[in-house]
Description:
By secondary structure, this protein is of the alpha/beta class. It has helices at residues 3-40, 46-52, 66-70, 90-104, 122-129, 141-153, 168-183, 198-207, 252-255, 263-274, 299-306, 394-409, 435-452, 459-479, and strands spanning 55-60, 78-86, 113-118, 134-137, 157-160, 188-190, 219-220, 223-224, 226-235, 237-238, 241-242, 285-297, 319-320, 323-336, 339-350, 358-364, 368-373, 383-388, 414-419, 422-426. Strands 9, 12, 13, 14, 15, 16, 17, 18, 19 and 20 form a ten-stranded mixed sheet that branches.
Amino acid sequence: MGLVDLNFLHYLLMTKFTAIFMKYFILFCTVGLLFCCSENNPKPNVMHQASTTNIRLMTLDPGHFHAALVQKTMYKNVASTLYVYAPEGPEVLDYLDKIAAYNNRENSPTNWKVERRIGTDYLKNMLNEQPGNVMIVAGKNSKKIDYILEAVKAGINVYADKPLVINKEGYAKLKEAFRIAKEKNLILYDIMTERFESTTALQKLLSAQTNVFGELLDGHHGQPSIVKESVHHFFKYVSGKPLIRPPWFFDVNEEGDGIVDVTTHLVDLVQWEAFPGQVIDTNDIEMVSAKRWPTVLTLPEFQKVTGLDAFPEYLSKDIKEDKLHVYCNGEMIYKIRGKLAKVSVIWNYQAPEGTADTHYSIMRGSKSNLIIKQGEDEGYLPTLYVEAKDTKGFEASLKGAVAGAVAELYPGTTMEKISDGLWKINIPDEFKIGHEAHFAQVTENYLKYLENQELPDWEVPNMITKYYITTAAYQLAKAN
C-alpha cells in the first residue's frame, strides 16, 4: 500500500473515531443536563398543570340542562375541546344541541369543539381514557354519587350539579369521596349558583352590618330566625326554548324527593349567610321536623313537558286515578348552632304568565328584618326590603351602609322608603343577570380553586353538613 493510501486510511479512522466520540459526548451532556434540570425544577404535578394552562373538561352523562349551562361561556385557561361521555338517548342530544346553539348564537358565540364518546361503556371509557382532568356531571341524581366516587378514585377533579346525594346511603359514599379527594389533592365541588343572586348576596352583606341588622335572633316555633322558601315549575323556558324534561325527572327514585333536591341551595344559603366563613359541623345541627307532599300531574301536562304519549311503566308506582303524584315538595325545620331555620320547596306545573321561579327569604335580627320577596308587587323579580325594629336613628345607619359596604359590592344601589320603618333596596339592573348567567360565575370560582389547589377551609365540612341536613330531613319526613 502506498503512502497516500496509508494517510487516507488514517484520516478515515480518525474521522470515524471523532464522530463516535462526539456522538456519545453530546448524549452524555444532554442526559446530565436533563438530570440537573429535573433536580432543580421538579416537574409540576398534574393539578398545577391543569390549573394554570391546560384545564380540560369532560362531561359525563348530561341528563340535566345545567350541564350545558356551564358551557354557555368560554373560560380563560380552559381548553376549547370538550369531551362528552354518555349513553345514547335524547338527553345527550339535547345537551349537544344546546352547545351547538351557544356556538352559533350572534352575540358572544362560544367556540367549543365537542369530542363525542357515546355508548354503553361511557363511564368505563372516561376512566380509562381520561382526556380531561375535570369531570362535569349533571343528571340522574341516583347515579351521581357513584360517578363522583369513581372519578376521584381515578384522580379526576369533579364539578357537580346539586344534589350530590339523595339518601343516607349516598351520604356515606359522599364522605368517602371527600376523603379520597383530600388524599389525592383533588377539588370536588357542587355548583351553588344562588350565592351569586344579587338580592341574596346583599341580604348576607347587610346581615353583617351590626348597626343595621344587629344579631341574628334565636327564633322560635312559628317565627324561625331564618327562612328560605322557593317555588319552581316543571314547564319553563331555558335559553329561549321550552324545556323538555326527561321522564325519569319525575321518578323520585332517580331524581330524589324535593326535600333533598332544590333544598340543597336553600340549606347552603342558610349556612353561607348566617355563618359566613365558619365551619359548620354535623354536631351543630338538630333536626326538629320535616314533611313531604306531592304535586299531581295529569297525562296532558306530563306529555307537554316530556314529549311522551304515556306514563312510563316505572312511574306506575306513583300513579293514582290516572294522575302522577310526584313527591317534589318538602319542608324542614332545624336548629343550626341554636338558631331555628326553616327551608321549604314547592313545585308547580307551570308559572302564571309573566312570572317565573320565585324565592322568599327572611333573616330576623335584633335591629331589623331583611326580607326578600318576589311576588306580584315586585313584578315577580326578587327584591330586598329592610324592616326596622326601632326607627330611631335607623335610617341614618341604613344610609351609611348603602353608601359604604353596599356601594362597594353593587355601585348605584339606592334605598327607597316604603312606609315608616320599611325600605326597599333598589339594585341596578346590571347586577340582576339571571339564573343561567350565575353558572359562569360559579365556574370562575371553581377554576380559581383549581389554580390554588385548595378550597376555603369551611367549604368541604359545610358541604358534608349540608347533605347531612337534607338526607336527615328526608329520613324524618319518610318516618312521618
